[in-house]
Inverse folding.
């Protein structure tokens, strides 16, 4: 092994140990078990981006930061969220620099959630970094309550890690919808982003063919209806970053049905799980899209508490290549916990999908979105849970699984509590949550796969606004708090030039 090879291996190992954005898989080791060829280490740095919460003067926004305790971490750690450049907690500074460099939120040690808040239409987008023991699994929940006007209700989103590609099936340019794609750039150089829109008949021609420039450390909300002339109820938005990286989320506001954040779907895959449809959902719409060159035929099933059920009249869904398909499933759950499971009827074709879910009736309706999501995997976390109004939904679509759920200490007091549950194959369960003893304030829920699976999950927050059943749903993908790092087969310290 020459010096060039050694330097490359050392560089890869160092990169894997510090990045919070990707997981490196160990190479196969000839004649050895793969576990001996890689070490699983906690990430040492994580970045999260929170979009500007609302344009309403009536908006009240809460932020909750939480890092679960991770074995193998040592020493100190920090986690801070600050306003994007050109903005401050008091409002935008038109000079293009931060008006106030003071962090909006600084986290405590792992295992203890901390909260912050903002109000009004000038609340900024936030850029955050966690390092050391605060980095593995760092989660920030942004929840906004809007009491009146377009998008009234509860709007919640998990602040996201920067990336280079996002899929948003379920977006819209309909007359009664106001949908913004929020793009946030955490880096020192500008990012250039393309937004592609796909309707029922295929790609739509947009008004910005040369891309959107997002300046360093700043955010850019893009109103989808300004990108195309045609009004379409069901669209798929594709955010593709030409240079740099961004955080992206769609704020979908409806004149009559409230509004919420539409998070990105899981990467295109042949089979998808959309977990945690509320028991009392009055309308469920499935929106699906396949980006490849082949049509997809999907079997549609509901994972109920008793097993997989095929909804009458909607047994399958045909998704034409590069065309957005949508189907209304009505009151699919009918008073029981449920998750939607999509599988190929024949040949597997990669698909993205999301659900628009409505609760309530008449003038008292409220909307939320459930995108297809990755499994819980090793561990996933949902912050900002309350003693009442929190529902944790878990589904095991292909194999029975055992999961451990831990409720953290509260933001203002209490001690953590844990319980273990068995989720039977093909079922969805809304589990009875472990109650933190002496709970004060809000708390975090951490879900860990003990055996079996895979398990998919989501958390629903409910907070009635008079007769409006306001709610928001966040999925629970693996937090990617650890990485596999290739190990050198020799002790590099004893090698000579």
């Amino acid at each position: 092994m020459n010096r060039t090879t050694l330097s490359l291996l050392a560089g890869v190992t160092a990169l894997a140990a510090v990045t919070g954005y990707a997981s490196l898989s160990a190479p196969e080791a000839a004649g050895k078990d793969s576990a001996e060829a890689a070490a699983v280490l906690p990430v040492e740095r994580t970045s999260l981006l929170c979009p500007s919460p609302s344009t309403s003067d009536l908006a009240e926004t809460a932020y909750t930061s939480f890092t679960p305790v991770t074995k193998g971490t040592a020493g100190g750690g920090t986690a801070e969220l600050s306003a994007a450049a050109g903005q401050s907690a008091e409002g935008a500074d038109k000079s293009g620099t931060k008006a106030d460099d003071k962090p909006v939120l600084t986290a405590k040690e792992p295992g203890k959630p901390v909260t912050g808040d903002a109000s009004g239409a000038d609340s900024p987008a936030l850029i955050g970094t966690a390092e050391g023991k605060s980095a593995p699994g760092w989660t920030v929940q942004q929840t906004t309550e809007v009491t009146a006007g377009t998008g009234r209700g509860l709007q919640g989103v998990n602040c996201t890690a920067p990336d280079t590609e996002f899929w948003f099936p379920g977006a819209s340019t309909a007359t009664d919808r106001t949908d913004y794609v929020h793009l946030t750039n955490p880096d020192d150089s500008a990012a250039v982003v393309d937004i592609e829109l796909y309707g029922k008949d295929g790609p739509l021609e947009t008004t910005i063919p040369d891309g959107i420039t997002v300046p360093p450390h700043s955010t850019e909300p893009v109103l989808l209806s300004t990108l195309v002339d045609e009004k379409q109820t069901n669209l798929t938005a594709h955010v593709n970053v030409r240079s740099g990286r961004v955080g992206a989320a769609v704020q979908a506001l409806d004149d009559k049905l409230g509004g919420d954040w539409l998070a990105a779907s899981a990467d295109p895959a042949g089979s998808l799980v959309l977990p945690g449809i509320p028991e009392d959902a009055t309308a469920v719409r499935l929106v699906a899209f396949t980006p490849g060159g082949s049509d997809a035929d999907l079997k549609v099933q509901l994972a109920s508490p008793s097993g997989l059920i095929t909804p009458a009249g909607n047994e399958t869904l045909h998704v034409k290549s590069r065309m957005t398909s949508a189907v209304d499933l009505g009151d699919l759950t009918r008073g029981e916990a449920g998750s939607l499971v999509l599988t190929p009827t024949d040949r597997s074709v990669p698909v993205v999908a999301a659900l628009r879910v409505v609760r309530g009736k008449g003038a008292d309706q409220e909307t939320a979105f459930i995108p297809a999501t990755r499994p819980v995997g090793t561990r996933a976390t949902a912050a900002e849970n309350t003693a009442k109004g929190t529902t944790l939904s878990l589904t095991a679509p292909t194999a029975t699984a055992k999961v451990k759920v831990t409720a953290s200490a509260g933001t203002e007091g209490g001690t953590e509590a844990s319980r273990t549950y068995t989720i039977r194959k093909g079922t969805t369960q809304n589990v009875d949550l472990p109650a933190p003893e002496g709970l004060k304030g809000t708390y975090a829920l951490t879900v860990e796969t003990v055996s079996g699976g895979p398990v998919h999950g989501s958390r629903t927050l409910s907070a009635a606004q008079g007769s409006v059943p306001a709610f928001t749903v966040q999925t629970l993908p693996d937090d990617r708090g650890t990485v596999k790092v290739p190990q050198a087969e020799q002790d590099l310290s004893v090698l000579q030039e």
Remarks:
- Residues 88 and 99 are 6 Å apart (CA to CA).
- Confidence is low (pLDDT under 50) at residues 1-32, 88-99, 489-497.
